[in-house]
Amino acid sequence: MSRKVMAILAIIAIALFLAGCADSPTASVDPADSQSQPAMAKPTTPGGFDEFGYNYAAGIFVGPADGVDKILDGKVWGDPVYAKDRLVMKWSKGWMDARFNGAPWGPDAWEDNEWNGKVPGGSGETWHYKIVWVGPGLASSQYWRPGGYPIWGQFEVILSQGQANGQHIWETHANPSGYGANP
């Protein structure tokens, strides 16, 4: 996997885990250990989308990547390379309940990231990720899907494909690659 692709995955991962921390600037969140994260109240935005691109009621982010860090400064965590790229992130009710409302993580928790850098001033890269909760057993979990890879200690990337450096890359395509429990 290229460094740029790994940077994209890290940016998206951090964005989803930090999404609820805007009202608590001192909150410490470790994306490597999602189970240890404190439950946070679900952020609310009257009228749907906030100025950054988040719509917590709908479980979606749509907008320039510049908004995922909740600082509109032409950068994504200090790096301007991906700031103009377009990003669509979607997460399930199971993800939202566990991440923001203290519910236990379960097989209905998933998130989907679609990155598009083929825009004016963008990075030129595209990427699509599907990530599901499988539990601390990872590959030995009943929810594990053949062909995926572990991330964040209790999650599996079941789809990872995109274009970088002029090449189409199929990094991961688990079977099945749909959402929901896979016992």
Question: Could you explain how this protein is built, in words?
Answer:
The structure is a single chain. The protein is of the alpha+beta class and 183 residues long. It has one domain (3-24, 53-173). It is built from 2 helices and 8 strands; from the N terminus they run αβββαβββββ. It has helices spanning 3-18, 93-101; strands spanning 54-55, 60-64, 86-91, 110-116, 126-133, 149-151, 155-164, 167-173. Strands 1, 2, 3, 4, 5, 6, 7 and 8 form an 8-stranded antiparallel β-sheet that branches. A hairpin with a 2-residue loop joins strand 7 and strand 8 (167-173). The longest helix has 16 residues, at 3-18.
Which SSEs are present, and which pair or pack?
Elements: H1 3-18, E1 54-55, E2 60-64, E3 86-91, H2 93-101, E4 110-116, E5 126-133, E6 149-151, E7 155-164, E8 167-173
Antiparallel strand pairs: 1-2, 2-3, 3-4, 4-5, 5-7, 6-7, 7-8
